[in-house]
C-alpha cells in the first residue's frame, strides 16, 4: 500500500472496494453532526466502503468507541473530537496498532498532531471572518468607536479557542472597536439569549454596538434580546451582529438585515471534502496530510451565493 | 438492690408553651408492672417518650437504679437498659423479621453473626406464638398484629432493666394479648421494671401491680391495682362517671334505602359475605384481626381491587372496586389508620372537615369561600369540636379530637347514605368514645346505614343494633339486638365448632 | 355569639403563631445582605435592568409555574421538561406554514398530551414520577432525533414575530408569565381541583380512601404543566427562530430550582404559584447582580448555587413545625 | 407485598441476564465474533459510571436522592488533575478529600436540619458546577502525568484495567460492609421508615452524614479516575452521567421510595448499563438508540413498581372472573 502521506501505513491504496471505516463522529443529536453524517455516508455510499457508525454525543462514550474502533482494526478511523485531550491516548493506541486516523472538523491535540491525517475546518479563519464582519459593519455605520460583546461556544474546546484567537487578531487591528464582554454560553441558545438580555441591561443599548454569537443559533437569540430590550438592530445605526456555523435561519436574518453576516463551516462542505479525501487516500493518491476546508465569509453582498450551502443544516 | 428501680421525679414538659406533663412523679420497683392510665392527651406518651430518651424534659429528673439518668437519646436510654414498645408501630416493613429484631439494638454485634441471630430470633418468635413466621421474611408481608408482636418480642428480648410498653395491645386480639401478658410477666419475674400504658382498663387491672392515673398532664393517683375497679379508674381518669348511652332501636322498614351485599369475596381474606343492611340501623362486625371484618368495610369502600360479588345501594349497583366508584355511590369510609389513610394532618381542621365535599361547596368547578367557612363551622359544632381550633392544623389536636374530625368529615352530607367505620374509636379515651358513639347513633337516626368493625366487646355491645360475629373470613353468627358478651367472644375467637 | 365566645383563644393562637419564626429573621437577613449589594451595583436600579430581570425570568418562570402544580400534587419533579419544550418548539416551527394559530394550537396540544400521558401513569398507576420522567426524557429526546434525523427545524413560515413583541417595553412572555402565575394561583386556591391537589399531595393514601378523584386531579396538574411547557417551547421557538435538540438547555433544573426557592415542598401538599414566581425572580436577580458586578461565569454559577442553597434551607426551616 | 423482596433481586438479575444474552448474541447480527477487547471495553464503560451509580444507589436505598454527585464528579476530576500533575496519588487523595467534605456538608444539612435531599443536592450541584468552572476558568484542563494515564487503563488479565478493578473493589467493599454489618439493615431501615428507625435506636443523623460523605467520596473518586484516563478534566459533564447512574441504580433494584436495594444489585445494574452501551457500539446502532433502550428498560421498572397499575389489573381480573370458589 501507498499511504505514505498518512500516519498509518497499512490501509492506504488499493481502491475503496472492501475497505471499512470506523466512524467516530458527533452523534445525530447534534444538528451539525446529523448533516455531516448524512452527507458523508451518502458521498461514500456507492464506493463500496463500509462505514461502521460509532458516533456519539459525549466525550466519555467517544473515548470508549474510539478504543472499540482501534480494536476492530478498520482500514481507517474517521473521527470528530469532543474532547481533544481525552483522545490523545486512543490516537496513540491507534498508531501502535497501525490503524490510520483521519480527524475532521476541529484539530486534534498538538501532542498527536503528527500522528494523524486531518480535514479541518479553518476555525482561526472563521474567527477572523466574524471580526471582519463586525469591523466592516461598524465602519459602514461610520462609527469612530464601538463596544463589542462575544457569546462564545464552550471555552473548553479547541474550536472555540481557535476562533477566539482569529477573532482577537483581527479586532486588534481595529483598536477603535473594543471587546468589552466575552461570556461562555456553552453552545446553548437559551443561555446565550439570557446572557444577552442581561448584558443589554448592564451596558444599555448605547453601550453595545456589535455582537458575535459563535453560531447562528446563538447569534439569533442576541438579536431577539436586543429587540426586546428596545435596542435597534442592523440598519444605519443599529446593533451589528455576526454569527458562525451558518444555517438557514441565519441566512434569513442576513437577508432581512438583522444579522450583518456570518461564516460558513457548514457540515455539508466539509463532509464532501472528507469523503473525497477518504477516496483519494484509499486510491493511493497520497492526499496532503492535513487539509483545511475553505471557509467563507457571508454577508448581505454574498448571501445569495451561500444560501444553498448554508441551508443544509 | 434497695430503692425502686425507676424514680420519676417531678417531670414536666410543655409544647409551644402548653404543658403536656406537669410535675409527674411515681416510682417503679424491680419486678413491678406499673400501669399508666389516663384519657387521650393526658400525657402518658409524653412521659414514656421522656423515659425512653426521645424527648428531653423541661424540668424534673429520672433516676434509674439510684443514679440520675440523662436520657439524651434512644441510644443512651438503651445503654442504660430502657427498652421500648412505642405507641406508634415501629417496625420497618422494608426489613426482614430478623433485621428488625436487631435493628438499633446496642448489644447487636457490629459484624452480623447470622446463624446465632437466626436461632435467637426463632426462639423469640416461638415464645410470642409466632411459629408461622420465618426470620428471613419481610415484615411488609406480615399483618398489623404480627408486626406489633414482632416489635413487642424485640423489646422484651433486649437485656433491659426497664421495659416500657405504650399501648402494645391496641391492635391485638384477645388471644394475642394473652401471650403478650405472659411474656410481660416473665420479664417482670426476671426483675425488670415494666411500665404499661393501655386504654383497656380490665386488662390493666388484670396485668398490673400498680396503677398511676394521669389527667391533663398531672398525676391524679397511684394505687395498687388490687384496690381499684374499672369504674373507679374511670372516675379518676375523667373526674366524673360517664353516663352510659341508651340505645334506640327503631329500624327503618323501608328496604329501598338498604345496602344489599351479596357474596362479597376478597381472595385470601374474605370467603363470603352477604348482608342486607337497612337505613337507620347500626351494624357491628365483630371480629379479631384477620377475621375479615375490616375487609368487608375495605372492599365496600373500594379499597380491595380484587373483591368480587354484588353490592346494591338504594337499588342501584355500586361500582365497589375503586374508592371513587364507592364514594360516588354514597359510601363514606373511616379507616382504622387515621394518620396514614385518614386525615390531612398538616391542613387545618376546617380544611379537613370539608375535604370530601369540596365539589359541593360552590358553583361548577369553584369553591365558594363563605359557604366553605360556614360548612366547616357547623360541622365542628355537630362533631363537638372546639370552634377556636378550626384554623389549627389537625396535627395539633389530641387523638380523640382528631377522630371526631375524621368522623365529622362524613356527616351532614346529603350524598352519603352509608357510613363505614373501621375501629371508630381506636386509641380514643372514654369521654371521646362516648361522643363519637353519639355521633354515629345520630347519623343512623338521620337515615344512614352505619356499619362498623371493632375488636372491643364493649363497643360492639354498646353500639351495634345488629351484631355479626366473624372469623376466618366468614360470618359465624348474626345477633339482631342484644347479645351476650361471652357468646360474642367465643364466636370471635373459636368459631361455632367449639360450641 | 359564636365569635364572641371564641375570640380570645383564637387571638391567643394567632399570637402564638405571629412570633417571628426563624425564617422571617433569616429571610430578613438575606434581604439585608442582598439589598445593599444589589442597589450599589452599577446600573442595577435601571428600567432596562428591571426589564432584563423580568425577561430572563420569563421562560424558566412559565415552566416553573406548571412544575409547581405537579410538585404540590405530590408528583415531585419532572426530569423531562427540557426535552418536552424542545419537541414542542419543533412542532411549532414545523407547522407554522399552516398559520400561527394552527401552529400554536398544535404545539400546545403536543405539550399537553405528552405531559398529561405521564400524569395518567402517575395519577392512576402511581408510577414513580422521577423514574417515569427520566424514561420519558430519554424517549422524547431519542425519539426526536430518530424522527428528525437531528436536523434543526427552522420556521416553515413567518408569523411568529408577534410572539417576540414587547408591549410597553416588556416581552410578551413576561405578561404570559404573570397571567399564568395568577391563573395557577387561582386554580390552586379557588377551584375544587386545585384544593384537591393539596390534599392528594399531602396524603395520597388518605385522599384515595376518602374517594377523592386522585387520578383525575393528578392529570389536571400534569396537563397544566404540559401547557406551561408548551408555552415555554413556543416562546423558545420564536425567540430562537429555529429549534435544535439542545434548544431548551438547562430548563429542567432551572425550573425545579425556581419552584424550590419559592418554598414549595418537594414532598407535596404545600406551595404556591405566586411564590414560585418570586423564586424565579429571585434567582434572576441573583444572576443579574453577579453578571453586572462582572464576575466570571464560574463564580456566577457558584454563588448562584450557594444562594439557592441558602434560600432552600431558610425556606425549609420556616416550613418546619 | 411479597413482590417487594423478590423485586430487589429479580430486577437486577433479569436486567443483567437480558443484556448479557443480547451481548453474547450480537455476533449473529454483526457477523464478527466477540473479542476479549469487547469485554474489556464494556468494563471500561462500567468503570466510567460504576462509582457514580454506587453513590446514587446508596443514597436511594436510604430514601434520599443525591443530585450533586455529578457536580462532585466534575470537581473531583478537576481537582485530581490540577493537584495530581506531579503525583497522581496526591491528586486522587485531594479530590477524594474534597468530595468527602462536600458530601459531609450536604449530609449535615440534610440530617441535622432535616431539609429534603433533592433541594439541597440540586443547589449543591449548581454550586459545584460553578466551582469546577471557577477553578478551571471554564477550560478543559490537560493532565500531563502520562504514566498515570497509561497505568489506569492498562489491560489486566485481558479484560480488566486498574480503573475497572478499583471500581469493582469499591462495589465489593460496599457489599461486604452492607451485607456483613448492621449498616446494611440500618441504611434500608432509614430508607424504609425513618421514624421507626429512630425509635428503634438507629442513629439516623450520623448515618445520613456518613452516607452522603460516602456518596461524595465515591463520586469524586469516579471523577478523578475518569480524568486520569482521559488525561483531561472537563468542567461540565452535563446531566447525562447522573441520569445514566440513576438508570443503573434503578435497574440495580434500588427504588426512589427507599428501603430497597443491595450492593450486588447495584453492581448488576451498572454492568447492565455498561454492556448495553457496548452492544450499541459493537452492533453499530445509532447513538440515540441507547436512550431508547434506557427508556424501555425504565418503563419496565416503572410498570413493575406501580401499585395503581397492579390494582387496575386485579380489578380487571376480578371483573372478568366474577365468581370463583
Ligand atoms: N410533639 C408534640 N408537639 C406538641 N404537642 C404535643 C406533642 N406531643 C404531644 N403533644 C401534646 O401533649 C399532650 C399529651 O400528649 P400524649 O401523647 O402524652 O397523650 P397520651 O396520654 O399518650 O394520649 P393518648 O392516649 O391519646 O395516646 C397532648 O395534648 C398532645 O397534643
Ligand atoms: N403539635 C402541637 N403543636 C402545638 N400545640 C399543640 C400540639 N398538640 C397539642 N397542642 C396544644 O396542647 C393543648 C392540649 O392539647 P390536647 O390535644 O390535649 O387538647 P384537647 O383538645 O383538650 O384534647 P382532648 O380532646 O383529647 O381532651 C391544645 O390546646 C393544643 O393547642
Ligand atoms: Mg386532651
Ligand atoms: Mg399516648
From TrEMBL, chain B:
InterPro entries: AAA+_ATPase (IPR003593), ABC_carbohydrate_import_ATPase (IPR050107), ABC_transporter-like_ATP-bd (IPR003439), ABC_transporter-like_CS (IPR017871), P-loop_NTPase (IPR027417). The keyword ATP-binding applies. Residues 6-241, 250-497 form the ABC transporter domain. Gene3D superfamilies: P-loop containing nucleotide triphosphate hydrolases (3.40.50.300). GO terms for molecular function: ATP binding; ATP hydrolysis activity. The keyword Disulfide bond does not apply. Transmembrane segments: none annotated. Keywords: ATP-binding, Nucleotide-binding, Repeat, Transport. This is Ribose import ATP-binding protein RbsA. It comes from Actinoplanes auranticolor. The lineage of its organism: Bacteria, Bacillati, Actinomycetota, Actinomycetes, Micromonosporales. The gene is rbsA_1.
From TrEMBL, chain C:
GO terms for cellular component: plasma membrane. Pfam families: BPD_transp_2 (PF02653). GO terms for molecular function: transmembrane transporter activity. Keywords: Cell inner membrane, Cell membrane, Membrane, Transmembrane, Transmembrane helix, Transport. The chain crosses the membrane at residues 50-70, 102-123, 130-148, 168-188, 209-235, 247-267, 298-317. It is found in: Cell membrane. This is Sugar ABC transporter permease. The gene is yphD. It is a multi-pass membrane protein. CDD domains: TM_PBP1_transp_AraH_like. The keyword Hydrolase does not apply.
TrEMBL record, chain D:
Its main location: membrane. GO terms for molecular function: transmembrane transporter activity. It comes from Actinoplanes auranticolor. The chain crosses the membrane at residues 41-58, 65-83, 89-113, 120-144, 164-187, 208-230, 242-259, 266-285, 291-309. The keyword Hydrolase does not apply. This is Ribose transport system permease protein. Keywords: Cell inner membrane, Cell membrane, Membrane, Transmembrane, Transmembrane helix, Transport. PANTHER family: ABC TRANSPORTER PERMEASE PROTEIN YPHD-RELATED, ABC TRANSPORTER PERMEASE PROTEIN YPHD-RELATED-RELATED.
Amino acid at each position: 500500500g501507498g499511504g505514505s502521506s498518512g500516519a498509518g501505513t497499512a490501509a492506504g491504496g488499493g481502491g475503496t472496494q472492501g475497505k471499512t471505516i470506523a466512524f467516530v463522529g458527533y452523534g445525530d443529536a447534534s444538528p451539525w453532526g446529523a448533516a455531516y453524517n448524512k452527507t458523508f455516508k451518502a458521498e461514500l455510499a456507492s464506493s463500496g466502503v463500509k462505514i461502521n457508525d460509532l458516533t456519539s454525543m459525549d466525550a466519555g462514550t467517544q473515548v470508549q468507541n474510539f478504543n472499540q474502533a482501534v480494536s476492530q482494526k478498520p482500514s481507517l478511523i474517521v473521527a470528530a473530537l469532543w474532547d481533544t485531550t481525552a483522545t490523545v491516548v486512543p490516537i496513540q493506541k491507534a498508531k501502535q496498532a497501525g490503524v490510520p486516523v483521519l480527524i475532521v472538523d476541529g484539530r486534534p491535540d498538538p501532542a498527536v498532531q503528527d500522528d494523524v491525517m486531518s480535514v479541518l475546518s479553518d476555525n482561526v479563519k472563521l474567527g477572523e471572518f466574524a471580526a471582519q464582519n463586525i469591523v466592516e459593519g461598524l465602519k459602514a455605520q461610520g462609527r469612530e468607536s464601538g463596544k463589542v460583546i462575544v457569546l462564545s461556544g464552550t471555552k473548553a474546546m479547541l474550536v472555540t479557542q481557535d476562533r477566539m484567537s482569529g477573532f482577537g487578531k483581527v479586532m486588534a487591528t481595529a483598536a477603535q472597536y473594543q471587546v468589552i464582554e466575552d461570556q461562555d454560553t456553552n453552545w446553548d441558545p437559551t443561555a446565550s439569549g439570557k446572557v444577552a438580555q442581561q448584558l443589554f441591561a448592564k451596558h444599555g443599548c448605547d453601550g453595545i454596538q456589535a455582537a458575535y454569537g459563535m453560531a447562528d443559533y446563538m447569534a439569533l437569540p442576541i438579536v431577539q434580546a436586543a429587540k426586546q430590550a428596545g435596542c435597534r438592530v442592523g440598519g444605519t445605526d443599529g446593533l451589528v451582529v455576526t454569527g458562525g456555523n451558518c444555517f438557514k435561519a441565519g441566512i434569513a436574518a442576513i437577508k432581512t438585515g438583522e444579522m450583518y453576516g456570518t461564516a460558513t463551516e457548514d457540515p455539508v462542505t466539509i463532509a464532501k471534502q472528507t469523503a473525497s479525501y477518504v477516496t483519494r487516500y484509499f486510491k493511493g493518491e497520497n492526499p496532503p496530510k492535513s487539509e483545511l476546508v475553505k471557509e467563507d465569509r457571508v454577508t448581505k453582498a454574498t448571501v445569495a451565493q451561500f444560501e444553498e450551502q448554508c441551508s443544509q443544516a | 438492690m434497695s430503692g425502686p428501680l425507676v424514680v420519676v421525679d417531678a417531670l414536666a414538659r410543655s409544647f409551644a408553651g402548653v404543658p403536656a406533663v406537669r410535675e409527674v412523679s411515681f416510682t417503679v420497683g424491680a419486678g413491678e408492672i406499673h400501669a399508666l392510665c389516663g384519657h387521650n392527651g393526658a400525657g402518658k406518651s409524653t412521659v414514656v417518650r421522656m423515659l425512653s430518651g426521645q424527648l428531653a424534659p423541661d424540668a424534673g429528673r429520672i433516676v434509674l437504679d439510684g443514679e440520675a439518668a440523662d436520657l439524651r437519646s434512644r441510644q443512651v436510654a438503651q445503654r442504660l437498659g430502657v427498652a421500648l414498645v412505642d405507641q406508634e408501630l415501629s417496625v420497618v416493613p422494608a426489613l426482614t423479621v430478623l433485621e428488625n429484631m436487631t435493628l438499633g439494638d446496642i448489644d447487636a454485634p457490629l459484624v452480623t453473626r447470622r446463624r446465632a441471630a437466626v436461632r435467637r430470633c426463632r426462639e423469640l418468635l416461638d415464645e410470642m406464638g409466632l411459629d408461622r413466621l420465618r426470620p428471613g421474611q419481610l415484615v411488609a408481608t406480615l399483618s398489623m398484629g404480627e408486626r406489633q408482636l414482632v416489635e413487642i418480642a424485640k423489646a422484651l428480648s433486649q437485656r433491659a432493666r426497664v421495659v416500657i410498653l405504650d399501648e402494645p395491645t391496641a391492635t391485638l386480639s384477645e388471644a394475642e394479648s394473652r401471650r403478650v401478658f405472659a411474656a410481660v410477666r416473665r420479664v417482670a419475674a426476671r426483675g425488670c421494671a415494666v411500665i404499661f400504658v393501655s386504654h383497656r382498663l380490665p386488662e390493666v387491672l388484670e396485668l398490673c401491680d400498680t396503677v398511676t392515673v394521669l389527667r391533663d398532664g398531672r398525676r391524679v393517683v397511684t394505687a395498687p391495682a388490687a384496690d381499684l375497679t374499672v369504674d373507679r379508674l374511670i372516675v379518676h381518669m375523667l373526674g366524673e362517671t360517664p353516663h352510659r348511652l341508651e340505645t334506640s332501636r327503631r329500624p327503618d322498614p323501608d328496604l329501598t334505602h338498604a345496602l344489599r351485599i351479596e357474596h362479597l369475596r376478597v381472595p385470601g381474606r374474605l370467603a363470603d359475605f352477604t348482608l342486607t343492611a337497612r337505613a337507620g340501623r347500626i351494624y357491628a362486625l365483630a371480629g379479631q384481626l384477620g377475621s375479615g371484618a375490616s375487609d368487608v368495610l375495605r372492599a365496600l369502600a373500594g379499597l380491595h381491587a380484587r373483591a368480587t360479588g354484588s353490592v346494591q345501594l338504594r337499588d342501584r349497583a355500586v361500582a365497589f372496586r375503586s374508592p371513587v366508584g364507592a364514594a360516588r355511590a354514597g359510601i363514606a369510609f373511616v379507616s382504622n389508620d387515621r394518620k396514614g389513610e385518614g386525615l390531612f394532618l398538616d391542613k387545618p381542621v376546617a380544611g379537613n372537615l370539608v375535604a370530601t365535599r369540596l365539589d359541593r361547596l360552590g358553583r361548577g368547578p369553584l369553591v365558594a369561600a363563605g359557604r366553605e367557612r360556614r360548612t366547616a363551622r357547623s360541622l365542628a359544632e355537630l362533631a363537638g369540636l372546639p370552634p377556636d381550633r378550626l384554623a389549627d392544623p389537625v396535627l395539633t389536636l389530641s387523638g380523640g379530637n382528631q377522630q371526631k374530625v375524621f368522623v365529622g368529615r362524613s356527616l351532614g352530607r346529603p350524598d352519603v347514605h352509608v357510613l363505614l367505620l373501621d375501629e371508630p374509636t381506636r386509641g380514643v379515651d372514654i369521654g371521646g368514645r362516648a361522643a363519637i358513639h353519639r355521633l354515629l347513633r345520630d347519623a343512623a337516626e338521620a337515615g344512614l346505614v352505619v356499619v362498623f368493625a371493632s375488636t372491643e366487646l364493649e363497643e360492639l355491645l354498646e353500639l351495634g343494633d345488629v351484631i355479626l360475629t366473624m372469623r376466618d373470613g366468614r360470618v359465624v353468627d348474626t345477633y339482631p339486638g342484644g347479645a351476650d358478651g361471652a357468646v360474642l367472644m367465643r364466636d370471635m375467637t373459636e368459631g361455632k365448632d367449639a360450641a | 355569639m359564636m365569635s364572641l365566645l371564641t375570640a380570645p383563644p383564637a387571638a391567643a393562637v394567632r399570637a402564638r403563631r405571629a412570633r417571628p419564626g426563624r425564617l422571617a429573621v433569616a429571610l430578613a437577613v438575606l434581604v439585608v445582605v442582598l439589598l445593599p449589594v444589589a442597589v450599589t451595583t452599577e446600573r442595577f436600579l435601571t428600567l432596562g435592568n428591571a426589564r432584563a430581570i423580568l425577561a430572563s425570568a420569563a421562560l424558566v418562570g412559565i415552566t416553573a409555574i406548571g412544575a409547581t402544580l405537579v410538585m404540590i400534587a405530590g408528583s415531585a419533579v419532572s426530569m423531562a421538561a427540557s426535552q418536552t419544550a424542545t419537541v414542542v418548539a419543533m412542532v411549532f416551527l414545523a407547522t407554522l406554514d399552516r398559520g400561527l394559530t394552527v401552529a400554536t394550537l398544535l404545539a400546545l396540544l403536543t405539550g399537553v398530551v405528552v405531559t398529561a400521558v405521564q400524569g395518567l401513569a402517575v395519577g392512576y398507576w402511581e408510577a414513580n414520577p422521577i423514574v417515569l420522567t427520566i424514561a420519558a426524557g430519554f424517549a422524547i429526546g431519542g425519539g426526536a432525533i430518530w424522527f428528525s434525523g437531528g436536523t434543526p427545524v427552522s420556521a416553515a413560515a413567518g408569523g411568529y414575530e408577534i410572539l417576540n413583541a414587547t408591549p410597553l417595553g416588556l416581552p410578551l412572555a413576561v405578561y404570559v408569565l404573570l397571567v399564568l402565575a395568577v391563573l395557577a394561583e387561582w386554580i390552586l386556591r379557588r377551584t375544587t381541583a386545585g384544593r384537591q391537589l393539596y390534599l392528594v399531595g399531602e396524603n395520597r393514601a388518605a385522599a384515595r380512601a376518602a374517594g377523592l378523584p386522585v387520578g383525575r386531579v393528578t392529570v389536571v396538574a400534569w396537563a397544566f404543566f404540559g401547557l406551561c411547557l408548551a408555552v415555554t417551547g413556543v416562546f423558545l421557538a420564536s425567540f430562537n427562530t429555529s429549534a435544535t435538540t439542545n434548544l431548551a438547555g438547562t430548563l429542567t433544573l432551572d425550573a425545579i430550582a425556581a419552584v424550590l426557592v419559592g418554598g414549595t415542598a418537594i414532598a407535596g401538599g404545600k406551595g404556591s404559584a405566586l411564590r414560585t414566581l418570586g423564586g424565579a425572580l429571585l434567582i434572576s436577580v441573583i444572576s443579574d447582580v453577579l453578571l453586572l458586578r462582572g464576575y466570571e461565569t464560574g463564580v456566577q454559577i457558584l454563588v448562584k448555587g450557594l444562594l439557592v442553597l441558602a434560600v432552600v434551607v431558610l425556606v425549609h426551616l420556616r416550613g418546619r413545625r | 407485598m411479597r413482590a417487594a423482596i423478590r423485586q430487589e433481586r429479580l430486577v437486577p438479575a433479569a436486567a443483567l441476564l437480558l443484556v448479557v444474552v443480547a451481548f453474547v448474541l450480537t455476533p449473529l447480527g454483526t457477523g464478527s465474533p466477540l473479542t476479549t477487547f469487547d469485554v474489556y471495553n464494556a468494563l471500561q464503560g462500567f468503570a466510567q459510571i460504576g462509582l457514580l451509580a454506587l453513590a446514587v444507589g446508596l443514597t436511594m436505598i436510604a430514601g434520599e436522592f443525591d443530585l450533586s454527585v455529578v457536580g462532585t464528579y466534575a470537581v473531583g476530576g478537576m481537582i485530581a488533575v490540577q493537584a495530581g500533575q506531579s503525583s497522581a496519588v496526591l491528586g486522587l487523595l485531594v479530590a477524594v478529600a474534597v468530595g468527602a467534605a462536600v458530601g459531609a456538608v450536604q449530609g449535615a444539612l440534610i440530617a441535622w436540619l432535616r431539609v429534603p435531599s433533592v433541594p439541597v443536592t440540586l443547589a449543591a450541584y449548581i454550586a459545584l458546577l460553578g466551582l469546577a468552572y471557577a477553578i478551571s476558568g471554564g477550560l478543559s484542563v490537560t493532565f500531563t502525568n502520562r504514566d498515570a494515564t497509561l497505568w489506569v487503563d492498562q489491560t489486566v488479565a485481558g479484560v480488566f484495567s486498574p480503573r475497572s478493578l478499583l471500581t469493582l473493589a469499591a462495589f465489593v467493599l460496599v457489599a461486604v460492609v452492607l451485607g456483613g454489618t448492621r449498616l446494611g439493615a440500618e441504611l434500608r431501615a432509614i430508607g424504609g421508615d425513618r421514624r421507626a428507625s429512630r425509635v428503634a435506636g438507629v442513629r439516623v443523623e450520623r448515618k445520613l452524614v456518613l452516607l452522603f460523605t460516602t456518596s461524595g467520596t465515591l463520586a469524586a473518586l469516579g471523577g478523578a479516575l475518569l480524568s486520569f484516563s482521559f488525561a483531561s478534566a472537563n468542567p461540565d459533564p452535563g446531566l447525562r452521567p447522573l441520569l445514566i447512574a440513576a438508570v443503573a441504580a434503578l435497574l440495580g433494584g434500588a427504588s426512589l421510595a427507599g428501603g430497597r436495594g443491595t450492593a450486588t444489585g447495584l453492581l448488576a445494574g451498572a454492568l447492565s448499563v455498561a454492556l448495553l452501551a457496548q452492544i450499541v457500539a459493537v452492533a453499530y446502532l445509532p447513538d440515540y438508540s441507547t436512550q431508547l433502550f434506557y427508556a424501555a428498560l425504565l418503563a419496565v421498572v416503572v410498570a413493575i413498581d406501580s401499585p395503581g397499575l397492579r390494582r387496575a389489573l386485579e380489578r380487571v381480573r376480578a371483573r372478568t372472573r366474577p365468581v370463583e370458589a
